[in-house]
Amino acid sequence: MPPLLSYGFRPFYILAAMLGAAMVPLTLAGIFGLVPAPDYFGPFTWHAHEMVFGYAAAIIAGFLLTATANWTGLPPTRGAGLAALTALWAAGRVAIWYGDVLPGALVAAIDIAFLPAVALAVGAKVVRARNFRNLIVVAVLLALTLSNLALHLVALGYDEAIPDRAIEFSLGVLMILLALLGGRVIPFFTGNSLPQAKVRQMGRLDMVALVLLLPALVPGLDTVAPWLFGVAALAHLARMIGWRTMATFGTPLLWILHLGYFWIVVSLALRAFGGLYPEAATAGIHALTVGAVGALTIGMMSRTALGHTGRPLHASRVTLSAFVLVNLAALFRVGGALRPDFGTEVLWASAAMWSLALLLYLAEFLPVLTSPRPDGKPG
After folding, report:
1. Per-residue confidence at 33, pLDDT binned at 50, 70, 90?
2. What is the pLDDT of residue 198?
3. Taking the CA of residue 366 as centre, how many other CA atoms within 13 Å lie in the half-sphere pointing to its CB?
4. Using H for helix, E for strand and C for coil, what is the string for 135-159?
5. Nearest CA-CA partner of 29 in 16, 17, 47, 50
6. What secondary structure does DSSP assign to 101-123, as a single string?
């Protein structure tokens, strides 16, 4: 079996980085009319859809297909099964691109099928191992599937008011998933690497913090009851205090994850001001999508790729540069949303830094992800 098909993180991290590097400048060019966007979605919906259901979904799949083996003690999805899931994800990207010539129902069916297929692969192992506490990730995958379905219904000619609501709902689900998985792996990695930091997890606070994210699932609520987002921001900031974030500053593979989680706090705090300043609500969305999603995904792709392939947990200068660039991209994008008068140059600068960060990731990790473990062990 080729190393590429031995664990889910290998093909999906590569594909996600390739898509993410290409799609942000490409969809931005489509929004500004510089290149034709696929007719199936409008340019704005295409941009949002591909970053959630293309880029983020690939990383989620790679992470969960790998983590499930650790959770359950069962062999991971590999070989032909993993190849089929990878092909299904790629088929969704191609189908949307050629959506103007393919039957709309076929495009929708191909793209929508990916997340339920991942949910089935993960859920089957979780149930077989009676590891029921992790069925929550299956529920989250199915919730994302529903929002993807809603976007495709628009493309097929149904309710034109759906896109914004479906996108906001999907971002809320994505934030809950990031907070759920981040709350597991960030303190775990920190405690293992820095035992002297005495990381603490507070079960009740963790549960309350996750429940307080539920308002993010309701489109427009940040302008009606913004205080809910302020309370959630404080809860997640308190959660981070127990993780000893300040102790991680000398360890890039840790601080990138902590900083990524902090972008969730920033996103919630900005949306708490959405009722007074509409620009703040928009900036809060980008703090989530560019900041939290960008930093957490590139951090997790780096840390888990090194760990699962038996390599030293050390961030090279190339990796460190990618970490810095993705956070600068978030700062520029959030700043551009808060101050629209900055002009489109800020957006293009953010897109360039985002893409460069992922290209650097590929340059550093493509050999890692396509070669066997140096120690000969599975991974």
Report:
1. confident
2. 84
3. 10
4. HHHHHHHHHHHHHHHHHHHHHCCCC
5. 47
6. TS-HHHHHHHHHTHHHHHHHHHH
Q: In the Cβ-directed half-sphere of 275, how many Cα atoms lie within 13 Å?
A: 11
- On the CB side of 356, CA atoms within 13 Å amount to 17
SS3 191: helix
Dihedral of the CA atoms 132, 61, 44, 226 (nearest 10)? 40
Cα–Cα distance for residue pair 305/311, rounded to 1 Å: 8
Distance CA 265, CA 251 (A): 21
Query: Does the pLDDT of residue 271 top 70, yes or no?
Result: yes
Answer whether residue 248 shows pLDDT above 80. Answer: yes
Q: What average pLDDT does this structure show over 209-223?
A: 89
Q: Kindly give, in sequence order, each residue whose CB lies less than 8 Å from that of residue 152, ignoring residues fewer than 6 positions away.
A: 107, 108, 111, 112
Quote the CA–CA distance of 165 and 171 in Å, as a whole number: 10
pLDDT digits (tens, 9 = 90+) for 314-367: 999 999 999 999 999 999 999 999 998 887 899 999 999 999 999 999 999 999
pLDDT at 341: 84
- Judged on CB neighbours under 10 Å (0-12, 13-18, 19+), 104 is middle
Q: Are 292 and 298 a contacting pair, CB within 8 Å?
A: no
* pLDDT digits 0-9 by tens, 175-207: 999 999 999 999 999 999 998 888 888 889 999
CB 86 within 8 A of CB 74: no
Amino acid in the structure at residue 179: A
The CA-based dihedral angle spanning residues 364, 366, 369, 371, taken in that order and rounded to the nearest 10 degrees: -100
> CB of 314 within 8 A of CB of 302?
no
User: Which residues are CB-contacts of 1 (< 8 A; sequence separation ≥ 6)?
Assistant: 78, 79
In terms of Cα–Cα distance, which of 243, 289, 248 is closest to 266?
289
Distance between CA atoms of residues 348 and 31, nearest Å: 12
Give the tokens for residue 104: 């709309």
Task: Please give the average per-residue pLDDT across 124-151, as a whole number.
Answer: 94
Whether residue 330 contacts residue 286, with contact meaning beta carbons closer than 8 Å, is answered with yes
